[in-house]
Design brief:
The chain has 325 residues and is mainly alpha-helical. It contains 15 helices and 2 strands. The radius of gyration is 21 Å and the shape is globular.
Length: 325
């Protein structure tokens, strides 16, 4: 059983679940509470039970993605990280294949059930598209420069938007007085989704740098192999710098917004310590990194930055609770 848990990356799945719940409790619910009606404030359409099933459906498909990725990556992992090899060593190919199909079927079934519940069956196409893209990534896209990295980063960004996509109030509320608030939910979630996309893209590129040796021997044409290690590092640094510039713009803008002076100063301090300084660390260290262990450290720092970005959603909750109620 231990090997099955290792195969589906439980820490990554917990981070995914945390991100989805953060969007619900730090963005959707606080903003909806600002929309009062004769019966009280607006509440999410999905109750806690249904939302838990939404999270579970995403986790099942993500877990299946990890399984198929390791299934197709056995030869490369045998070179890059033999100590972490699970399929063929601890779990047979046949069992891993069956595990993959069970996870996907369960995830798709829950996705279709949820789409039916919110009266938008077309939303089930998100789960189906995710399954297809993860399979395509594992079998073909990951061997191609940039395309594979972007596809994984895109799926990571969509996770942030899933609680919004399955919230009918956001997209089907015709009441004019609530449209500004519901649109704000989508816009704020989109900003965090864009941040997740960029951070995940950098992590994927760094993982390609980490796996160059095995990728070369197994015929993968990732960006460091197709272009060069130096070019890949330049792209990573460029994305980080652009991200930091955009974040700095928000910080400067809110610094002069005296109505929310105290709150946004706390937000600025949070970003500087837990997001910008770690990103600056990655910018500095990536130039001298040349071992798998060094790249693994940078990848972990970026994962912590992503966690900090999710936690920063709390300031959206505080913003609405302190200034708009």
């Amino acid at each position: 059983m231990k090997h099955y848990f290792q195969l589906i990356r439980p820490v990554n799945l917990l981070l995914t679940a945390f991100a989805m719940y953060a969007v619900r409790f730090f963005i959707i619910i606080p903003i909806l509470k600002n929309c009062t009606t004769n019966e009280g404030y607006l509440a999410p359409y999905l109750n806690e039970g249904w939302f838990a099933l939404l999270v579970l459906s995403v986790l099942l498909i993500n877990a299946a993605g990890y399984v198929i990725n390791d299934y197709c990556d056995v030869d490369t992992d045998a070179i890059n990280k033999p100590e972490k090899l699970i399929i063929s060593k601890n779990i047979s190919f046949k069992v891993a294949s069956n595990f993959y199909y069970v996870l996907n079927i369960a995830g798709i079934f829950l996705g279709m059930m949820l789409a039916y519940y919110v009266h938008a069956l077309r939303l089930s196409s998100i789960h189906l598209a995710a399954v297809g893209l993860l399979w395509l990534y594992a079998t073909q896209l990951k061997k191609m420069p940039i395309v594979g990295n972007v596809s994984v980063a895109l799926l990571g960004a969509i996770v942030i938007l899933m609680p919004v996509f399955f919230e009918p109030i956001v997209f089907y509320n015709d009441t004019i007085q609530f449209q500004t608030s519901t649109q704000l939910i989508f816009k704020i979630s989109l900003i965090f989704s864009a941040f997740a996309f960029l951070m995940q893209l950098i992590r994927e590129l760094i993982k390609d740098l980490q796996d160059v040796e095995g990728d070369e021997q197994t015929g993968c044409n990732t960006l460091p192999i197709w272009a060069s290690i130096k070019t890949t590092k330049i792209i990573c640094v460029s994305i980080i710098i652009v991200s930091m510039i955009v974040l700095s713009w928000f910080q400067i803008h809110f610094f002069y917004h005296r109505n929310f002076y105290k709150l946004f100063n706390s937000w600025n301090l949070f970003n500087i310590i837990l997001i910008q300084l770690p990103l600056l660390f990655v910018v500095i260290k990536i130039w001298t990194a040349n071992t798998s262990k060094q790249y693994a450290v940078l990848s972990m720092v970026l994962k912590l930055v992503m966690l900090a970005g999710i936690c920063s959603m709390l300031f959206i909750k505080l913003w609405f609770e302190n200034y708009f109620n």
